[in-house]
Amino acid sequence: MRHRILLPDELGRHFTVTQAAAAGIGRGRVGARDLDRPFRGVRSVARAETPLDRVTALAPRLHRGQLVGGETAMRVWGYPHPGIWRLEAPIVVVVAPGSARVRRRGVTGRRLAGGRAHPWRIGGIPVIDPVAALFMCAVPLTDDQAVIALDALISTADNYPGLRPGRPPLALTDIEQRLRAWGRFPGSRRIRDALTRARDGAESPKETETRLLIVAGGLPEPVVQHEIHESGVLIARSDMAYPSLKIAIEYEGDGHRTSREQWRRDIQRQRELEDRGWIVIRVTQLDLGDGGRMLIDHIRRAMASRR
User: Fold this and answer.
1) Which H helix or E strand runs over 110?
2) What is the pTM of this model?
């Protein structure tokens, strides 16, 4: 039986043919059938199972100044972006003006003016910063989707689903400054308008969606992540609230349903708030359908009960 030559650990899971040659790996081993060929000149020890795997596989083939950008960068950072990130989705790669665009199967090359993006590296992937990534893919976003993305960019929550650890801390003022520096670009007006509706403190896209739906339904905007104290002690922190009316609104994501401990904490917190005279309204994905009509009616009735 013919045994495969073991690959050196320093090559990693994805490497270029040039890197393999520099490590002393012959052409025969590089051409072996046990290695996947996701891109021309690239070998992987296993076939990509996720879109992120494909981006990671492309990374060794990118040259200096070539960065993953646009929608792909948003996905790599873990920020919310509409639609499903499919395995076959084109990978957006940006280069500076004057440089040749990346021309490769499965890759969309774009040029970006110098100084508009800050380079980062995430798990070996060279990528543009989150603000530049959002600006690049602003055109297809709806007004609400732009707000959801901005809420995620400025969120400091460790439990925001999907977001990468080590992401750059951002405030609305940082994004406003970048917007002025970029000037006019496709989708700039949408981002500018969305900035006025973005709020710090959101811990999931659905929390933002719920807040926007409540306001669109003609109700006052609730306070985000309201802390409830008693005698100087923090009792609870509500996703959204009308403090003067003692109405708390909690969005229940799948984590609340699948985690036994989270579910128990939610029930205990609700009882503690209700014992102190609060009305607790729990929201699920089902409540967001049909424009949230039933949810809006529920909140209106809760408000009316306080008058």
Assistant:
1) strand 107-111
2) 0.91
205-305 homologous superfamily? VSR Endonuclease (3.40.960.10)
Return the DSSP state at 92.
E
Phi, psi torsion values for 267, nearest 5 degrees: -65, -45
Interatomic CA distance for residues 234 and 249, integer angstroms: 17
Cβ(25)–Cβ(40) under 8 Å?
Answer: no
Entry field: residues in the chain: 307
Q: For the chain, which ranges sit under pLDDT 50?
A: 1, 256
Rounded-to-integer distance, Cα 125 and Cα 122, Å: 5
Q: Delimit the domains of the chain by residue range.
A: 9-46, 53-195, 205-305
- Token pair recorded at residue 13: 């899971």
Angstrom distance (rounded) from CA 6 to CA 112: 41
Q: What is the pLDDT of residues 248-258, one digit of tens each?
A: 999 987 654 55
